[in-house]
From TrEMBL:
CDD domains named in the record: SDR_e
InterPro entries: Epimerase_deHydtase, Lipid_A_modif_metabolic_enz, NAD(P)-bd_dom_sf
SUPFAM superfamilies: NAD(P)-binding Rossmann-fold domains
Residue ranges annotated for the NAD-dependent epimerase/dehydratase domain, each copy included: 3-215
Protein name: NAD(P)-dependent oxidoreductase
């Protein structure tokens, strides 16, 4: 198949090229920054470039985006240009060229304020049924792009699946308080319980989606590691998360102690991937239980693919408070 991958210099785009190219697919890849994984350098908001790249394409994997860490360094107009206008240009060209499937990489950030319940309430159980409440221009533009995708399915009959991915970046946390309180791997390990996914599993979700899109037509899916929690755990998670975690994983405390790691005192939301596993036939391999076994064996908590890609950073400049701007 001929596959167009946008954002091919980024974490996920590179991971998709690395995975799909050796399988014999004809890869066309676009990014604003040149790299050995990018065949065309330029903006996805450029209709001439997009029309050129879309010729003969069977599948579009649209990962290119301005991210949450760019909120402090890029204008709202730049977010609209990339995340909305760029997506529109791709949808127009995909429809005109009768592409078989369009997979849009969205984000759990679209849920915004719905992710943190009021004080005293249980942790939030986040499924696809939760209504987005964007709290910044990143969330607003990704939500609008999702709506454009749905419009093209409705009116142009373009098969489109939306994958709302949770955290998979290897960079440090964008919250200085969390960076100061936890070792980086400690924090990322805990996030696999409720809000993180390995890039290898994100890639397999995109591949599953591109094979299922024509049959499904349209759908939105949360792509995150499989949580061990149930709705019955939500009240206690918000107040005494270590008790819940150690009840499910009795060996976790000993393994964490060996690494001088600590537990989060509370967890405020849980991402649920059940719909993606059921409808996309997706089988994620990386979760907290698997991670504990890696720690016992002295292995990296990241997949081999994540290790190979490594950190890229979101900004070329440095800031007074660390890797991210204060805003």
């Amino acid at each position: 198949m001929k596959i167009l991958i946008t954002g091919s210099t980024g974490h996920l785009g590179e991971a998709l090229v690395r995975t799909l190219a050796p399988q014999g697919h004809d890869i066309v890849s676009i990014d604003i920054q040149a790299s050995s994984f990018t065949t065309h350098t330029g903006s996805i908001a450029n209709p001439v470039l997009i029309q050129e790249c879309m010729k003969g394409v069977d599948i579009v994997l649209h990962t290119a985006t301005l991210h949450k860490p760019h909120v402090g360094t890029h204008s709202r107009q730049e977010f609209i240009d990339t995340n909305i206008t760029g997506t529109l240009q791709l949808l127009e060209a995909a429809s005109a060229n009768k592409v078989k499937a369009f997979i849009f990489t969205s984000t759990t950030s679209v849920f915004g304020d719905a992710l943190i319940p009021p004080p005293g309430e249980p942790a939030a159980w986040i499924t696809e049924e939760v209504a987005p409440q964007p709290k910044n221009i990143y969330g607003v533009t990704k939500t609008a792009a999702e709506d454009l995708c749905q419009l093209f399915y409705r009116n142009q009959k373009l098969p489109v699946l939306i994958l709302r991915t949770s955290r998979f970046f290897p960079e440090q946390d964008d919250n200085k308080g969390m960076r100061d309180a936890f070792a980086d791997d400690n924090l990322k390990a805990l996030e696999y319980l409720y809000r993180r996914v390995d890039v290898e599993d994100v890639v397999s979700a995109h591949i599953a989606a591109m094979h299922r899109a024509q049959e499904i037509g349209f759908g939105k899916y949360i792509i995150s590691a499989t949580t061990p929690f149930t709705t019955a755990d939500l009240p206690l998670l918000r107040a005494h998360a270590p008790q819940v975690i150690q009840g499910i994983y009795p060996e976790a405390a000993g393994i964490f102690a060996q690494h001088n790691w600590q537990f989060l005192p509370y967890i405020d939301r849980v991402y649920v991937n059940e719909k993606a596993r059921r409808e996309l036939h997706w089988q994620p391999q990386h979760d907290f239980g698997a991670l504990l076994q890696k720690l016992k064996q002295g292995q990296s908590i990241k997949s081999k693919l994540a290790d190979v890609i490594g950190a890229k950073g979101y900004h070329s400049e440095s800031f007074s408070e660390g890797p991210y701007p204060v805003h």
